[in-house]
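Supplementary Methods. Inverse-folding protocol.

Structures were first reduced to a discrete structure-token string of length 174. This string, shown here, constituted the complete conditioning input.
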């Protein structure tokens, strides 16, 4: 297939399905900017594999399958999970110059510390090093002298336990 024809087919697909793909991606990631980035990635994949497309389904179906897979992979990615967790902690530890905000920050910081203290050391240390200290999975594995897969597993379980512990604490207060 010639380059001009590939470019024409890509442009046609972008014009016909672009908005729909962004809406679909948004239902997964809940962030319009990220949804647009993922759709752009889907169109790149479409362009790269255009010659492999066998027309067993419509172009629309093919593009939807690509974007669903890209969104699922993104949601499984460590970069997404780290971003999600870091944003949550950042909200908890947001700083401001006002005395009221400093008091709230101090209280929130102690709540986060209390939450982490309820976790077993193997989960607490991994969460602390990864999210609060900013070490990579590889660096955490070296620090704790365990495999990267062990770090990933402890991060996943630690997040789940922290969420459950936090939700139980909120329910107990009500």
């Amino acid at each position: 297939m010639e380059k001009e024809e590939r470019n024409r087919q890509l442009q046609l697909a972008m014009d016909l399905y672009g908005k729909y793909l962004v809406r679909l991606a948004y239902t997964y990631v809940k962030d319009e900017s990220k949804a647009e980035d993922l759709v752009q990635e889907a169109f790149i994949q479409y362009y790269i594999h255009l010659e492999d497309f066998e027309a067993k389904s419509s172009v629309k179906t093919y593009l939807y399958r690509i974007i669903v897979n890209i969104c699922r992979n993104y949601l499984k990615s460590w970069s997404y999970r780290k971003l999600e967790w870091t944003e949550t902690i950042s909200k908890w530890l947001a700083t401001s110059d006002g005395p009221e905000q400093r008091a709230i920050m101090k209280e929130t910081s102690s709540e986060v510390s209390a939450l982490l203290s309820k976790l077993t050391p193997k989960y607490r240390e991994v969460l602390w090093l990864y999210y609060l200290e900013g070490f990579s999975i590889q660096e955490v594995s070296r620090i704790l002298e365990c495999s990267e897969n062990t770090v990933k597993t402890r991060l996943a379980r630690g997040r789940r336990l922290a969420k459950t512990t936090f939700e139980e604490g909120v329910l107990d207060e009500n």
